[in-house]
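User: Fold this; tokens only.

Assistant: Input:
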Amino acid sequence: MERLIEILEELHPDVDFESCESLIDDHILDSFDIITLISEISAEFDVTIPAEEIVPENFNSAKALYALIKRLSDDE
């Protein structure tokens, strides 16, 4: 989770990713951020995020994103 927070903070250093649960809903992350995140997560955590998993629920918070990474890691 710590590395994920670092990746998110590289995109938006002014956001408290530990507590924010509305990254998509509040338009903190945009489509370019999502693409960047998917690429960074793939490289850092060695997981592929399939298109059907690219939904707001999975990107609305660092916790949700980390849960997605863990789920995808367990599936491999």
